[in-house]
Design brief:
240 residues; alpha+beta
Length: 240
């Protein structure tokens, strides 16, 4: 049976089902079907209340797969060999959806300043990662700011971020998130993009590209200088 989202233990139907599923889903303690049945029989014979059956656990697993999707896909090679492939995008999405892992995840590369203890400290993640694989945006005070899109800072300065990263300082235990990009100057009718790159704190971002586009109205946003951009469906098209 389906479980209503209003239930306190959703998507589990009961606390015993939740605890049993948690035990049987342990990534470092794999249970065979025979072992699962033995555990349930043992708990029931000892008088534990509301012990779920194997049928109930199978139904619950099917419910979870319908809700979350199956990250593992069965593949058959031309030789007939069977192997299983995990979809990385689905695995990451499930980690973000898990409240226990979400806050431990690292979204941005970190400038380790010569030190390295985690993979996101690596110079390849910071400098050599292709733009298409780098984090595409950041959320600041409810606004979402994308790389390669014009924005405005709290100082009134305009800016186009190209890469978002973080750095830790001795003054704070929390990392400071920074953006590398181009400073943009506004003239009477156009925006001039400075080809030199600078680094700014993302906490200074106050107006998104959509905010600036609404302000510009029908006149739109036009660029001049060494770098020229044209707006097309809210995306930048590089004009060579």
């Amino acid at each position: 049976t389906d479980v209503s989202p209003d239930e306190p233990l959703y998507p589990w139907s009961s606390r015993p089902e939740f605890l049993t599923h948690l035990l049987f889903s342990s990534p470092r303690l794999r249970f065979s079907r025979a072992q699962k049945a033995a555990v349930l029989t043992w708990a029931k014979d000892l008088g534990a209340p509301e012990v779920p059956s194997m049928y109930a656990m199978d139904k619950a697993q099917g419910r979870f797969m319908k809700l979350l999707g199956m990250p593992t896909e069965k593949m058959t090679a031309a030789s007939g060999n069977v192997f299983y492939l995990n979809a990385l995008s689905k695995a990451i999405a499930m980690d973000f959806a898990n409240l226990l892992t979400r806050f431990a995840m690292q979204e941005y590369p970190e400038d380790g300043q010569g030190c390295m203890s985690q993979v996101h400290h690596g110079i390849k993640m910071l400098d050599d990662l292709p733009d298409a694989l780098a984090p595409p945006c950041i959320r600041v005070d409810g606004g979402i700011y994308f790389v390669d899109e014009l924005l405005q800072q709290s100082t009134g300065q305009y800016f186009i971020p190209k890469k978002i990263f973080q750095v830790r300082t001795l003054e704070s235990s929390e990392p400071t998130i920074l953006a590398l990009g181009h400073k943009v100057s506004k003239t009477a009718e156009e925006y001039a993009v400075d080809p030199e790159m600078i680094i700014v704190e993302v906490s200074t971002f106050v107006r998104t590209f959509e905010d600036l586009q609404r302000q510009a109205g029908e006149s739109g946003i036009c660029f001049t200088g060494l770098l020229k951009f044209a707006i097309n469906a809210q995306k930048y098209l590089m004009v060579l």
